[in-house]
Amino acid sequence: MAMKTVSTWKSHGGVQGVYTHASDVCGCDMTFAVFVPPQAAEGPLPVLWYLSGLTCTHANVMEKGEYRRLAAELGIIIVCPDTSPRGENVPDDKDDWQFGSGAGFYVDATVEPYARNYRMYTYITEELPALIAREFPADMERQSIFGHSMGGHGALTIALKHPDRYRSCSAFAPIVEPTTAGWSSKAFERYLGSDQDSWRKYDACALVKDGARFSEFLIDQGAADSFLDEGLRPWLFEECCREAGISLTLNMREGYDHSYYFISTFMNDHLRWHHQRLTA
Amino acid sequence: MAMKTVSTWKSHGGVQGVYTHASDVCGCDMTFAVFVPPQAAEGPLPVLWYLSGLTCTHANVMEKGEYRRLAAELGIIIVCPDTSPRGENVPDDKDDWQFGSGAGFYVDATVEPYARNYRMYTYITEELPALIAREFPADMERQSIFGHSMGGHGALTIALKHPDRYRSCSAFAPIVEPTTAGWSSKAFERYLGSDQDSWRKYDACALVKDGARFSEFLIDQGAADSFLDEGLRPWLFEECCREAGISLTLNMREGYDHSYYFISTFMNDHLRWHHQRLTA
C-alpha cells in the first residue's frame, strides 16, 4: 500500500498532486489526485472528497473542476479518487461505458469475475481514507463528501451510511435512484446479481426509505441536463427526503447541462457550503 | 467565411461556445472558442484575446484556464483561437511538435509549401477580428491581448505592431526572443526562409530594438519552468524594455512551472489588470 507520486504542480499556493498505490481492496494499482492548500504548513486541514461520474478518472475534475482557488483560500484538502479499478488483469467490458472501467458505481461487487476488483465502496470508505490519513496533513475528524452524477450517487449513499463520519454531503446532478435508472440498473445486476434487495444499500432513495438518515443535503441540477428525466430524477430524492424529514436544498439551474461547465459554475457554492459545516 | 456553431455550454451565467469557419486566410476550416458573459444582453462588451502555446488548440485554455468566473463578473468577452491551420490539405510535420500543426508561431509564412496556409499573423489580426466583430456582441474599440508561451510571443509581437488597437497586453511565460531560442528558430527558418532580417518583425525583443513601442506589459513567469533558461528568458525582454523606456512588470513566481496549474493561478490577476485598462 506504499504510495508513489506521479506528478505534482504548484497551484494557487498549494500543491496539486497525482499519486498511485497498489490497492489491496481493488487488486490493482489505483491512481488518485489530492490538492493540499498552503495552510497545511500550519497544521492538519479538513478533507473534502469529490467522487466523479461515469467515464471519468481522477483527472477530469482536477483539470476542469476549478476548485483550487477557493480551496486554497478556505484551507480544504480535496481528494479526487478514480471511478473504478483498472488494468490488464481487471475484467472489463470495453464496449459499455456504463459498466467496468470508469463505471465502478461505488459498490462492492459480489458477482464473479467482478467481485475481486470492483470494490469501490470499500476502497473509498476504508482503504483510501487510511492512506490519506497516513500520507497527507489531513484532519480525518473533519471530512465531507460530494460528487457528480455517478459520483453524486456515491456521495449520497456513502454519507447516508456514515452519518457520523461526514460533516456534510452535496452533489451535482446525482443519480438518486440507480436501481431503477437505465444506465445503472444493468451495471447493478452485473456487479451484484439478480437479487434486487441487495442493491438497496447502494441507492440513495432506497436507503432513506429503509431508514438511513443524514443531517442535510445540497444538490445542484442543470435544468437542461440531457440525462435529467431518465437517469437523474432528483425529484425522487426530494420526495424521499420530504417524507423522511431530511433537509434538502435542490437548486434547479436553468440552461445548464451535465458538463464541467455546469459543475465549475457552482463549485464555489458547494465549497463554501462544506467549509461552513467543516469548521462549525 | 460563414460561421458554424460546434458546441455551446452555459457557464457562469454566460455562454462558452466553440465555432468553426472556412478561413480564406489559412485556406482551411478554423476552430475557435468564445466566452460571452451575461452582461452582453445589455450591450457590446470589451474583447480579450488569449493566444495559446505549442501543441494547444482552442480547447486547452477553455478547459483549464479558469477564466470564466471572473470574465463573467467583469463583463469581458474572451476569444481563444487555434494555434495553427489544420486539415488533410495543410502541410505538416507530424514528428515535430515545434513546427506545423499546433505550432503556427503567429507568423505569415513565406516559404512553400507553408505559405498558403500558415498565415496565423493575418488570421489573428485581420480575418478573425472581422468575424468576431460581425458575429458577437463585441466592442472592437476595446480590445486587449494576452497569451502563454508561444502565445505570449504572439501577444507581445502583435501588440507591439498595433499599439493603438490593443489597450493592454500581458503574457504567461512568453517566448520573448524566438529568433534565437532553439524551439522556435528552426520553425522560423522553415516558415520564413534563411534571411533572418525577415524574422525580426515576429520577435518581441527585436521589435523593441527596432523601435516598436507599447504602453506597458505584464508578464508572469514560473521560476521552476523547465523551459525558462533556454526557451523563455524573460530577462532579455526586461533589458529591451528598460533600454526603450517601456514599463514592464515581470513577476517571477517561485515553484511554478509551465502548465495550466500555473496559468490558472494567475489568470485572475491578468483579467483584472486588463479590465482596468479596457474600462479606463
Q: Features of this protein?
A:
280 residues, homodimer, carboxylic ester hydrolase activity (chains A, B), alpha/beta, nine-stranded mixed sheet, globular, 9 strands, 9 helices
Q: What's a concise summary of this model?
A:
Two copies of one chain form a homodimer. The first copy, chain A, has 280 residues and is α/β, with parallel strands linked by helices. Helix content of chain A is 33%, strand content 26%.
Protein architecture, described:
The structure is a homodimer of 280-residue chains. Helix content of chain A is 33%, strand content 26%. By secondary structure, the first copy, chain A, is α/β, with parallel strands linked by helices. The first copy, chain A, has a nine-stranded mixed sheet, sandwiched between helices. The first copy, chain A, is globular, with a radius of gyration of 17 Å. Chain A starts with a strand and ends with a helix. The A-B interface holds A 9-13, 16, 63-64, 66, 68-69, 222, 224, 255-257, 259-262, 264-265, 268 and B 9-13, 16, 63-64, 66, 68-69, 224, 255-257, 259-262, 264-265, 268. Chains A, B: The active site is at 149 (charge relay system), 225 (charge relay system), 258 (charge relay system). Chains A, B: One of its GO terms (cellular component) is cytosol.
How many individual helices of chain A?
Answer: 9
Termini of chain A, distance in Å? 34 Å
Structural class of chain A: alpha/beta
What fraction of residues of chain A sit in β-strands? 25-35%
- Gross morphology of chain A is globular
**Largest interface, C-beta within 8 A:** A-B, 23 and 22 residues
Subunit organisation of the chains: homodimer
Rg of Cα set of chain A: 17 Å
**Residue-averaged pLDDT of chain A, rounded?**
97
Q: Summarize the helix and strand pattern of chain A as letters.
A: EEEEHHEHEHEHHEHHEH
What helical percentage do the residues of chain A reach? 25-40%
Strand order of the largest sheet of chain A: 1-2-3-5-4-6-7-8-9
